[in-house]
Amino acid sequence: LTVMGDAGMELNMSPPDSAAQQDSLFSMTDVFLISLITGLFTYWFFFRKKKEEVPDIPKMQSIATPVRDSSFIEKMKKTGRNIVVFYGSQTGTAEEFANRLSKDAHRYGLRGMAADPEEYDLSDLSRLSEIDKSLAVFCMATYGEGDPTDNAQDFYDWLQEADADLSGLRFAVFGLGNKTYEHFNAMGKYVDKRLEELGAQRIFELGLGDDDGNLEEDFITWREQFWPAVCEHFGVEATGEESSIRQYELVVHTDVNVNKVYTGEMGRLKSYENQKPPFDAKNPFLAQVTENRKLNEGGERHLMHLELDISNSKIRYESGDHVAVYPANDSSLVNQIGEILGMDLDTIMSLNNLDEESNKKHPFPCPTSYRTALTYYLDITNPPRTNVLYELAQYATDTGEQERLRKMASSAAEGKALYLSWVVEARRNILAILQDMPSLRPPIDHLCELLPRLQARYYSIASSSKVHPNTIHICAVTVEYETKTGRLNKGVATNWLKNKVPDENGSNSLVPMYVRKSQFRLPFKPSTPVIMIGPGTGIAPFIGFIQERAWLKQQGRGEVGRTGLGAAGGQLMGAVWLCRQRASLAMACGVGARLLSPHSHLVSCQVYVQHLLKKNKENVWKLVNEGNAHIYVCGDARNMARDVQNTFYEIVAEFGNMSQPQAVDYVKKLMTKGRYSLDVWS
Length: 682
Fold this sequence. Notes:
The longest helix has 39 residues, at 15-53. A hairpin with a 5-residue loop joins strand 18 (480-482) and strand 19. 38% of the residues lie in helices and 18% in strands. It is globular, with a radius of gyration of 32 Å. It is built from 22 helices and 25 strands. Helix 10 packs antiparallel against helix 11 (399-409). Residues 1-26, 46-68, 568-583, 585-593 and 597-606 have low confidence and may be disordered.
């Protein structure tokens, strides 16, 4: 008999020896089993009572607590609120509007609260009728190509799948959108329509704000008609004029541990000193700038190429994704605000929410210094909205300046016109307003409460992770212009990035960033032809596309389709990059690339991408109709994207023998199938 031992060795035994060994083994097995059974019985007898005595109640309570916390109904009942204003916000504007509406409610004997839909269970909407004179308002921004904002994604998914009975719900919707985009206010329209389908009662018409026009005026116009409708529905009256209501109280820290003070972090305290993945909007990665070079020679505009090191961050990206960076305000602007208000900016303070039940304890990370707040957390460069002017008016000691501020904050036609001309068109930021109104000297803590948050800036990534897995490239042009008042305004992020020059220790070249995924993707099959249209800085994602296709060809990953790039115009970015990187594009010709550009050398001319499309219209139609080409458009949404789309309508109508409506439908179907993709901004 041959038996394999533990070490895999062969042990040869005679039959008698084998029988003896078996008897021994059975004996040992019996002893082992008896011991095991005895042990288990003893353990059960002595310890079972103790286990039974452990109550399950605490465990049940800990599970139930989050459910109660996520119920906005319970919170409204507990705090005596009857109006809830949900916001779907990507840049903070919808959240700001929601806060303004919730504060309005007190004028009508009602109590409101602004709420982030991401923090609550929206299926509770069916229970809102349990509260007397209850109303749900939705301030919903549309993001990207008709998509919900990140914080409204779960709410959107629930609406799509819900089969709830919302017959007891009263609601109103204000949408925030931009008419230059294909799907104008898609989210606001969908929420308004879907709530009605589920049986909810609309008490005021859908508001459609247009950021391409005057979003603030659109909101004020809707708001001034919305509240009378609420009053009529509930049979209430306004209790008086608007009044200034502080949402936060100031606490000055004279003796505070410096390790407990925020110095610019977006979320977790000391997160910049102790970096932990995953990295996102609330936990950005500090990437070092390893290269920052100017692309153009001379000229007024500064065209730059930056490379961010993401080694050891576990950040992954794909061609077409966006990189978000958190900029800092110019220190000279911050210092001037401090000087005008006569304040020591290094004072450590906290702004604490007076509503102890609110999920939002502070308007920005606290405790911190005024300098940090004005540098990293607050928007001090954009023209302030009318509600800020109204709140500030009380601090103007000159009656003329006070009346001017109140007039601009009013809903009167004259006031709206004055706000448009004196603030918006003149591009007066808060510093300019303080400079031009010498008697206006508000407390700095109230100013910090009123100013909106400084938002991350998004850039199309100008590299391929296949070629550059450890770096993310950005191509951008610095923004700088003179206002009607003669002031020089500078873009916050581009000028901040411009000064991020690599140095020996790297401390001055760190950029807080994270990657935002995009649907702007190369076709799954490398053999599929692509047509890329990107004038100016719109060329950025296509640098990554070309790099990736050249890499696929180099790696021998099968056939790689034709790669056509249209970049044109007096928009210098595309021209300069094309002229200086002609060799790189020539290499990409190995993948069948074709460059549509009027530039053989750097010249000033006005040739637009739609002209190039028309010039090559027959080839374009063949690629689209016969080659199943994918079309990509990146750049200005207001004019370029619309003109390019109209040009495609013309090409399809001409070569496809279609009427104009049929051609429009053909292009729309390309969009639906993911063959016509947009990455545009206004």
